Every structure is written in structure tokens, then in C-alpha cells.
């Protein structure tokens, strides 16, 4: 063996000994490491809240009043006295039918009535005279009865002439065609010079009242039954007058500036759709809503006076789809609670079963938390947006 190799071997134990002495002199390594501190998690303490539950129902607008203007007599249309798309008032003249034939018929009926009434005095006087002569036996009973019959015929002829005159007057009054309601006119289907027929199937023009305006929405019968059960059980209460107030979202999602009222609920379920119709009335001063527009009505279903709302990030699902949440329970350990979740209210879930007031629900640090593990709970203040209602 060479001398340098021997020196190296002799030096190694000495170097190890020196290192050990140096560690000992410096105090040596620390003792066995202690357990790590509990993980810190963010929690929200639940408290009951007054929650107004609403639902959005699709529907369409329809005019408050609709009048399809049709002629009631035959004739030649002489004038159209309105502008298409203009507002008209009830009783305003829209069209004029040639009145000459009906005026002549009225005058003829008037003359016939005068002729019939002119025969009445003579027939009445004769009948009275014959009644007096019967008492003195100057004439027979048959003559008196003939006089009474002649008077009755004269009176009937006068009544018939009077009815003919009234009919002619009505026919003449139909020659000017007036608007039956106040509203906005649509497109006219005829022009002056057209021949129109009484009660024709095609209207001359349609007048619609747009302020206020109807909104008809559809609600499924199953949802209606569910809501009635919840109200009957006391889980929800009606908000009095506020329950009949309705908000509206336009077709592009923007809110309608005016609030409407729920007018009535239909009593018939449509067999094809399984839904009932709810009719609402909205003011429409700016005529922003037009008949046939698609809208969404926000209807109040009821009020949960003791609602439990949980941030959506706290609610998780197991492989079977059941909802659960992690809470900090006794001894500051994490527990799992199975939930019955209702609906989303803003960015929170309405929980119907599984949680109660005072429970501390995890909203932060969910990755580190495991059921049965002790944690350090840190209260978290949720932003205002999270506390907003639907």
C-alpha cells in the first residue's frame, strides 16, 4: 500500500470525529419535529334572512282593447277620415259610406208613418160613435165590433210604420263608421271607392288600445301545485299587496321601467302544454311595449321569513349528485352535512334542510379541509354582491 493512501484513510475517521464535535459544540440538531398547525379555513356563520322568492315566466304582450272595425251596411265607401297609425278617440269618424240610398229609405219610412197615423183619428172616432149607438140599439153589435177592428188595424199599421222608420234611421246611422274605442289605428284594408259589405269577414281597420297593455305568461300546472303545497304548509307566505306586483324584462334582457299588477289566473289548464295563463296589466305611456312582443315577467311566489342562504362555492356534489357542505363543528373539526337545496337566490343557494342558523360553513380552504380534521376557523366577510337577493 502506498503511503498517501494510508494517510487518507487515517484522516477520514478524524474528519468525521471533528464534524461530530463541531455539531455538538453548536448545540446539535433539533429534537423530533412537532405536529403541524391546523390548517386555516374561511367560514361564514349562517343567520336566517327574509327572502323574497320570485320566478321568471315567459310570455307575450297583447293589446288592452282590440276593435276590428267592420261596416254594418252595404254601400260605396266615399271617404277615409284618419291617418294610418294615428291615435283616434272613441266615436271619432273613420269612414263614410254613401248615405243617399239610406236617407231616401228613411224619408220614405217617415212618409209612410205619417200616412198611417193620419188614418188613426177617423178610425178612433168611428169606433167610439158605434159604441155609443150600440147602447141606444141604433146599430148592431157586429157594426161596433167592425169599428173596433178597423181601429186596431189602423193602430197596428201606424206601429209597423214607426218600426220601419226606426229601422231606416238605424241603417242611416251606420253609414258613418266611427271608432268604437280610443286607441291606435293600424293599416286600412280599403280605400275610397271600394264597395263594402255588411259584417264582412275582413275588417276595414283594427284599432288597439296600447296603454295600458296586457302581458300573458304561462306557468306549468305542476309548478302551480308545488307552490300551493308550500304555501299551505307555511314554508312561504304571501307578501300582501306586493304579491300582485310584477316586474318585466324586455326581449333584450333590459328591465321595463314600469311595474305591473297580476290581474287574474286562468282556471283552465291547456291540454297540449300543461300550463295555465296568468294575465298581467302594465302601464305603457311611452308605447314601448307593442302587441306580440316576447317578454319575461318576474312574479313573486312568496316570502320565506327564515330563509337560510349559503354561498354557492360552499355547496358541493358527491358522485351521486347529492348536495353537501363542510361545516366547522364541535372541537373545531370539519363535518359533512347533506343538504336539500332549493333555488339560487343571487349567488347563493336557498337551503331547505341540512343547515341551521349559527352553523359555520366553509367558504375558503376547502382543498385542505377533510371531515374529522381539526382546523382554525377564520370568519370571512362576503361581498355585498353575494348578499343580494334575486
Distance between the termini: 91 Å
Largest sheet: 6 strands, mixed
Looking at the structure, the CATH topology of the largest domain is: Elongation Factor Tu (Ef-tu), domain 3
CATH superfamily of the largest domain: Efflux pump adaptor protein, beta barrel domain
* Helix-strand makeup class: alpha+beta
Provide the succession of SSEs: HEEEEEHHHEEEEHEEEEEEEEEEEH
Q: Which strand-content bin applies to the residues?
A: 25-35%
- Oligomeric form: single chain
Mean pLDDT: 82
**What is the number of helical segments per DSSP (H or I, 4+ residues)?**
6
CATH class of the largest domain: Mainly Beta
Shape: elongated
Low-confidence stretches: 1-28, 385-390
**CATH architectural category of the largest domain:** Beta Barrel
Report helical residue fraction: 25-40%
What Rg, in angstroms, do the CA atoms define? 46 Å
Number of domains: 4
Question: How many beta strands in the DSSP annotation?
Answer: 20
Summarize this structure as a short list of keywords or feature phrases:
single chain; 390 residues; alpha+beta; conserved putative lor/sdh protein from methanococcus maripaludis s2 fold; Elongation Factor Tu (Ef-tu), domain 3; OB fold (Dihydrolipoamide Acetyltransferase, E2P); 4 domains; 6-stranded mixed β-sheet; 6-stranded antiparallel beta barrel; 35% strand; disordered C terminus
Short description:
The protein is α+β, with helices and mostly antiparallel strands and 390 residues long. It has helices at residues 3-25, 100-118, 120-135, 141-173, 221-233, 384-387; strands at residues 40-45, 49-69, 75-80, 87-88, 93-97, 176-178, 183-185, 195-196, 205-220, 245-249, 260-265, 275-282, 294-311, 316-317, 323-328, 334-338, 340-345, 348-353, 360-364, 376-379. The strands form 3 sheets. Strands 1, 14, 15, 16, 19 and 20 form a 6-stranded mixed β-sheet that branches.
